[in-house]
Amino acid sequence: TGDIGEWQPDGSMKIIDRKKNIFKLSQGEYVAVENLENIYGVVSAIDSIWVYGNSFESFLVAVVNPNKEALESWAEGNGISGDFEALCENPKAKEYILGELSKTGKEKKLKGFEFIRAVHLDPVPFDMERDLITPTYKRKRPQLLKYYQGAIDNMYKSAK
């Protein structure tokens, strides 16, 4: 079927990913990216996340649609001014979101290579107008890659 399963202690099988959404990082670790997006997706400071990696890089990066209220409230509490778009460009805001993702990664006992090392914050949610998601809100990975290629290249450059 193209599904990836995991046997549960009670003998049942839990579907955790799709085969086509698994890739290998440069160190040889396999990453089930949909599973990670589901885990990171529970972070209250974000509305949506797309995790990216490839076999030429040793770590993961992500494009995040931050939660407007959460980001603005964090900024206010930390004396950072600016509108939502400006906050998304702020390096401290990126650190904050990365910290929230890492906290969740630790809580969920993710492996080191499953942690996200850099984020790009996009104030505009992934949408069908830009052909980034399907009508059922599934991420269109090839289109996301094409659309965010510049941001991904920058994340890999700056995080090394």
Automatic annotation (TrEMBL):
Cellular component, GO, one term: membrane
SUPFAM superfamilies documented for this protein? Acetyl-CoA synthetase-like (SSF56801)
Q: Source organism's superkingdom?
A: Eukaryota
The molecular function terms in GO held by this entry are: long-chain fatty acid-CoA ligase activity
Which PANTHER family is this protein grouped with? LONG-CHAIN-FATTY-ACID--COA LIGASE
From the Swiss-Prot or TrEMBL record, give the protein name.
AMP-dependent synthetase/ligase domain-containing protein
Q: Which organism is it from?
A: Aegilops tauschii subsp. strangulata (Goatgrass)
Query: Which classification does the entry list for the species?
Result: Eukaryota, Viridiplantae, Streptophyta, Embryophyta, Tracheophyta
